Amino acid sequence: MIDHIHSTQGRKVNAAGILLAWVPAVMLLALLLRTVWDVDIFWQLKLGELILDRAGPVSREPFSALHLDEPLPSVAWAGQALMALARRVGGWNLLRVVDAMCWLGGFWAVAAACRLRGAAMSAIMLALVLTFIAALPTASIRPQSFACLCFGLLLALQRLGLRPLLTIALGGPLLVAWQNLHPSVSVGVIAMGLAALPGWLAWLTGRSRSLPVAPTALAVIGVAAVFATPDGISIIQTSATNAEASIAIGASEWLPLWISGNRSNAVPVLVTVLLAARLVMADRRRIDASELAVAIGLLLMTVTAYRFVLFWAVAMVPVIARAGARPDDKGGVSTGIGVAMVVVPILLVALFAPLLAPTRFAATLPLAAVERLRKEGVQGTVYGDFPFGGAIIDAGYPAWHVAYDGRYYRYSRKEWQYNGGIENGIVPLVDVVHKWQPAAFILDEKHNAPLAGELAHSREWRRIWAQDGIVVYVPRRR
Question: Is the confidence at residue 10, as pLDDT, over 60?
Answer without folding.
Answer: no
